[in-house]
Amino acid sequence: MNLVGAISKLGTEDAMAVIGEDFTSLVPGFEATDAEESVRTLETFVRRCSYDDLSPQEFYYVLGFNTTVPPYVRAGLHSREVTHDDTLADLNVPVLVTHGEEDTVVLPAAGEEHAEMIPDTRTSSYPAVGHSPFWEAPERFNQELRESATEV
Prior knowledge:
Blueprint: E1 2-4, E2 9-10, H1 13-16, H2 21-24, H3 27-30, H4 35-48, H5 56-67, H6 71-78, E3 82-83, H7 85-89, E4 95-100, H8 108-117, E5 121-126, H9 133-136, H10 138-149
Parallel strand pairs: 1-4, 4-5
Antiparallel strand pairs: 2-3
Protein backbone atom coordinates (compact mmCIF):
# COMPACT_ATOMS: atom_id res chain seq x y z
CA MET A 1 0.00 0.00 0.00
CA ASN A 2 1.21 3.50 -0.76
CA LEU A 3 -0.28 6.48 1.07
CA VAL A 4 0.55 9.58 -0.97
CA GLY A 5 -0.08 12.94 0.69
CA ALA A 6 -2.87 11.07 2.42
CA ILE A 7 -5.29 11.96 5.14
CA SER A 8 -7.11 9.27 7.08
CA LYS A 9 -9.72 11.38 8.81
CA LEU A 10 -12.14 14.20 8.05
CA GLY A 11 -14.48 16.44 10.00
CA THR A 12 -12.66 16.36 13.35
CA GLU A 13 -10.23 18.60 15.18
CA ASP A 14 -7.52 15.97 14.63
CA ALA A 15 -8.17 16.11 10.90
CA MET A 16 -8.06 19.91 10.84
CA ALA A 17 -4.64 19.79 12.49
CA VAL A 18 -3.14 18.13 9.38
CA ILE A 19 -5.15 19.82 6.62
CA GLY A 20 -3.50 22.98 5.41
CA GLU A 21 -5.16 26.36 5.18
CA ASP A 22 -4.31 26.28 1.47
CA PHE A 23 -7.06 23.65 1.27
CA THR A 24 -9.51 24.71 3.97
CA SER A 25 -9.68 28.29 2.70
CA LEU A 26 -11.00 26.95 -0.61
CA VAL A 27 -13.83 24.78 0.75
CA PRO A 28 -16.64 27.30 0.05
CA GLY A 29 -15.52 27.58 -3.58
CA PHE A 30 -15.21 23.81 -3.94
CA GLU A 31 -18.88 23.54 -3.04
CA ALA A 32 -20.05 26.48 -5.17
CA THR A 33 -22.65 25.69 -7.79
CA ASP A 34 -21.69 28.78 -9.80
CA ALA A 35 -19.45 27.38 -12.56
CA GLU A 36 -17.12 30.39 -12.73
CA GLU A 37 -16.54 30.43 -8.96
CA SER A 38 -16.03 26.68 -8.91
CA VAL A 39 -13.46 26.78 -11.73
CA ARG A 40 -11.61 29.74 -10.17
CA THR A 41 -11.37 27.79 -6.93
CA LEU A 42 -10.16 24.65 -8.70
CA GLU A 43 -7.55 26.70 -10.58
CA THR A 44 -6.21 27.95 -7.25
CA PHE A 45 -6.31 24.45 -5.80
CA VAL A 46 -4.38 22.95 -8.74
CA ARG A 47 -1.71 25.63 -8.36
CA ARG A 48 -1.43 24.87 -4.63
CA CYS A 49 -0.98 21.14 -5.26
CA SER A 50 2.50 21.55 -6.70
CA TYR A 51 5.52 23.30 -5.30
CA ASP A 52 6.75 24.56 -8.67
CA ASP A 53 4.54 25.94 -11.42
CA LEU A 54 3.06 23.40 -13.79
CA SER A 55 3.44 23.90 -17.52
CA PRO A 56 0.24 25.21 -19.17
CA GLN A 57 -0.40 21.75 -20.64
CA GLU A 58 -0.02 20.06 -17.24
CA PHE A 59 -2.08 22.73 -15.50
CA TYR A 60 -5.07 22.38 -17.82
CA TYR A 61 -4.83 18.59 -17.83
CA VAL A 62 -4.99 18.47 -14.02
CA LEU A 63 -7.66 21.18 -13.92
CA GLY A 64 -9.72 19.20 -16.41
CA PHE A 65 -9.99 16.07 -14.32
CA ASN A 66 -10.68 18.12 -11.17
CA THR A 67 -13.62 19.85 -12.82
CA THR A 68 -15.31 16.51 -13.53
CA VAL A 69 -16.13 16.13 -9.82
CA PRO A 70 -19.51 17.81 -9.24
CA PRO A 71 -19.83 20.36 -6.40
CA TYR A 72 -22.35 18.16 -4.56
CA VAL A 73 -19.76 15.37 -4.39
CA ARG A 74 -17.15 17.77 -3.01
CA ALA A 75 -19.70 19.06 -0.47
CA GLY A 76 -20.47 15.50 0.60
CA LEU A 77 -16.79 14.80 1.11
CA HIS A 78 -16.26 17.90 3.23
CA SER A 79 -19.39 17.49 5.34
CA ARG A 80 -18.71 14.04 6.73
CA GLU A 81 -16.91 12.96 9.87
CA VAL A 82 -14.78 9.86 9.46
CA THR A 83 -11.57 8.37 10.80
CA HIS A 84 -9.66 5.37 9.52
CA ASP A 85 -6.79 5.50 12.01
CA ASP A 86 -7.82 2.21 13.68
CA THR A 87 -7.95 0.50 10.30
CA LEU A 88 -4.48 1.77 9.42
CA ALA A 89 -3.09 0.65 12.78
CA ASP A 90 -4.38 -2.87 12.09
CA LEU A 91 -2.78 -3.22 8.65
CA ASN A 92 -0.64 -6.30 8.15
CA VAL A 93 0.92 -5.37 4.80
CA PRO A 94 3.97 -3.21 4.06
CA VAL A 95 3.04 0.45 3.67
CA LEU A 96 4.99 3.19 1.94
CA VAL A 97 4.11 6.67 3.20
CA THR A 98 5.01 9.25 0.55
CA HIS A 99 4.74 12.97 1.26
CA GLY A 100 6.00 16.20 -0.26
CA GLU A 101 7.86 18.34 2.25
CA GLU A 102 6.20 21.47 0.83
CA ASP A 103 2.66 20.06 0.86
CA THR A 104 0.32 22.84 2.03
CA VAL A 105 -2.87 20.89 1.23
CA VAL A 106 -2.32 17.89 3.52
CA LEU A 107 0.48 18.85 5.84
CA PRO A 108 3.52 16.57 6.19
CA ALA A 109 2.43 15.97 9.80
CA ALA A 110 -0.27 13.66 8.38
CA GLY A 111 2.40 11.42 6.87
CA GLU A 112 4.32 11.46 10.14
CA GLU A 113 1.17 10.36 12.00
CA HIS A 114 0.62 7.53 9.53
CA ALA A 115 4.20 6.35 9.90
CA GLU A 116 3.80 6.25 13.68
CA MET A 117 0.50 4.35 13.69
CA ILE A 118 1.08 1.77 10.94
CA PRO A 119 3.23 -1.20 12.01
CA ASP A 120 5.19 -2.03 8.81
CA THR A 121 5.92 1.39 7.35
CA ARG A 122 8.62 2.91 5.21
CA THR A 123 8.51 6.69 4.68
CA SER A 124 9.65 8.72 1.73
CA SER A 125 9.86 12.48 2.05
CA TYR A 126 10.20 14.60 -1.09
CA PRO A 127 12.02 17.93 -0.74
CA ALA A 128 10.80 20.80 -2.94
CA VAL A 129 7.60 18.86 -3.72
CA GLY A 130 4.02 19.74 -2.81
CA HIS A 131 0.88 17.61 -2.72
CA SER A 132 1.64 15.71 -5.93
CA PRO A 133 4.87 13.68 -5.66
CA PHE A 134 3.64 11.33 -8.41
CA TRP A 135 3.41 14.33 -10.76
CA GLU A 136 6.28 16.48 -9.53
CA ALA A 137 8.87 13.69 -9.21
CA PRO A 138 7.48 10.82 -11.31
CA GLU A 139 10.75 8.96 -11.87
CA ARG A 140 11.52 8.70 -8.16
CA PHE A 141 7.89 8.04 -7.29
CA ASN A 142 7.54 5.22 -9.82
CA GLN A 143 10.84 3.65 -8.75
CA GLU A 144 9.81 3.66 -5.10
CA LEU A 145 6.39 2.30 -5.96
CA ARG A 146 7.97 -0.56 -7.94
CA GLU A 147 10.33 -1.33 -5.06
CA SER A 148 7.48 -1.23 -2.56
CA ALA A 149 5.37 -3.57 -4.69
CA THR A 150 8.13 -6.19 -4.75
CA GLU A 151 8.34 -6.22 -0.91
CA VAL A 152 5.09 -8.18 -0.65
